[in-house]
Amino acid sequence: MPQTWLLVLCELLIFLYTFAKARMLRVPLEAQRKPASQLSHSFLATQTLQLMLDNRENVEYYGRIAMGTPPQLFRVIFDTGSANTWLPSSNCPDSNIACQQHSRYKAYKSKSYVKNGRNFSLAYGNGHVSGYLSQDTLRIADVVVPDLIFGETLSHHQATFIPTIFDGIVGLGFRQIAWKNSTPFLELFCQQHLVKRCLFSVYLRRMAGELYGGEITFGGIDHSRYKGALDYVPLSKVGYWQFVMSGVSVGNKKIDGRVNAILDTGTSLVLMPRRIFEELQQAIGARIKNKTYIVSCHWDYLQDVQFHIGDRKYALTASDYVVSLETANETICASGFVPIETDFWVLGDIFLTRVYSVYDVEAERIGFAEAVQDED
Known about the structure:
This protein is mostly beta strands. It is 12% helix and 43% strand.
């Protein structure tokens, strides 16, 4: 196996490993999705809003919003790992291809636009965006959220954002991690009093070759999407959706003890403290080749990873956590666990496709249950 491909694989795993794949799935804003008759809630009837999410190869789960008056359409990731919202700006330079090839917000076409002008910069793994702040009205289906301060991006890290389908991000975190002197989307949304409860729930679907990726339900819980009862744990710190795990194990081997974790719909993989990365890799059955941990693309012997949360354990099997990169000559496989220089875990989409999650703003808690796997 060429060592250069192993280096490429490591780099890709730091962000969204398939962003650099040559074959990209491009879909129009009005891509096919499940018929409206299959939605389990009606916003006007039950005071909940269920928004369908599309899935690009199990690494991008994105929905549709509109910004401005009249509405301008965008694809966005609803990101529980941040509180800020940003969209590409029509003012970004022609030289920034990553910005130019996505839908761009045109302030001059919006009657509800209000100038702000403060500069911002945000870092994401090995990528970043920067630009300036503006204010306008955001729309999700029938819900109108006025006066949202959001970022107009002028610069995108090219290698990271050129291949992505999503245009921007809507942050679902708390005010504590938002831009200063701004009210984040989630707080503004709840202030409208158009939903029964100030909470949202997330169901993600892991299926190859499908556009339908699940849904996010604002104001309610879809009980058909999980098994048993929800188990709630309190937030350990308000800002991120952060809580305490009682442990992580592989078989009978304890990998980590009591430790903080963040639920992050904006991260595809699972990020973990570097101090225990090698121990986990060895426990699941990975091996070192050219200074890189790889796993067999035949998953039979690989071990499950158990996350101890509240009174339950949630398992990721090899079919959940193995990621692959196809080269001209072979397929290289690695685990979706990425080391970072922190002492907490970040549980991304490969975890959230197995767990139905409820984000209760008012009670400052998160609900967990085993997700029902949708095979339709």
